[in-house]
Amino acid sequence: MFGLFGGKDMNVLAVIFERRDLYHVSGQRVKASAVNTARDGAKAHPRAIYFAVFDQKGAFREGGEGAGSLQVPGEVIKRLQRELTSNKTIQEVLTILQTKQADKIAKPLVWHGYPPRQMHGQN
Q1: 104: three-class secondary structure by DSSP
Q2: Residue burial 67-79, b: 16+ Cβ < 10 Å; e: rest
Q3: Residue environment code for 12-35, b if the CB has 16+ CB neighbours within 10 A, otherwise e
């Protein structure tokens, strides 16, 4: 699928569940030839609630629920998906990857969509 992008690098992000009110954004810049491996790794991470692939211009290419998506309510996943490309933390991570300041980065997700306590029980 990504063979059409030639030798361009891609950015693979994963939103990782840490606790009810804290998720992390983990991103890595990879060669187009390795994007499928990186994407599959992000998707299969046991605490990844969402993964996304972006090109170097910041365009969303692919995304979906990760292996850990069952740890959060479905409404949270839908909201995260809607707001992903406009989220400030996501944009900061993409900028760092696009400008080659780092090949890998992780930051806490600043977001107003965290679920209320009653959606997770007493945790």
Answers
A1: strand
A2: ebbebbeeebbeb
A3: bbbbbbeebeebebbbbbbebeeb
* Dihedral Cα 20, 106, 42, 76, nearest 10 deg: 30
Backbone φ and ψ for 86, nearest 5 degrees, come out as: -100, -5
What residue ranges in 1-123 does DSSP mark as E strands? 9-19, 22-31, 48-55, 60-65, 104-108
pTM of the model: 0.88
Q: Write the burial class of residue 121 (CB in 10 Å: 0-12 exposed, 13-18 middle, 19+ buried).
A: exposed
Query: Which pLDDT belongs to residue 5?
Result: 45
Q: Which residues of 37-64 are buried (b: 16+ CB within 10 A; e: fewer)?
A: ebbebbbebebbbbbbbbbbeeeebebe
Query: What is the reported pLDDT for 35?
Result: 95
Give me 28's structure tokens. Answer: 């890595």
What is the amino acid identity at position 16?
I
How far apart CA 4 and CA 118 sit, in angstroms, is 45
- What amino acid is encoded at 43 in this protein? K
Tokens of 121: 């029980």
